[in-house]
Target: Sarcosine oxidase subunit delta
Amino acid sequence: MLIKCPYCGPRPSEEFTILGDASVRRPTSNDPATMDQWFDYVYLRDNPKGRYKEYWHHGGGCRSWIVVDRDTQTHEIFGTQAARDVTLAENKKGNS
Model:
């Protein structure tokens, strides 16, 4: 399977490590009252079948984090973006 790194171009998937769900957001508070949010963030993940956005790390190349939009059943890749660009776009949308 080839993954199009935004910086290096198409590269074999063996150069990457998958982290998982790109929609999970880290809690912003360290208050003890948010421990349930932290537990969910660290330990609970869905394992969907179908189209899904995931974080991938290009450890065998430029060492960048990217978001890969792919189907977990067929492994078809619909697109990739630099994780930084995805986060900046979401922050901009949240501040509007």
Notes: Residues 6 and 43 are 29 Å apart (CA to CA). Residues 2-24+39-94 form a domain with the Folate-binding fold fold (CATH 3.30.2270.10). The chain has a mean pLDDT of 91.
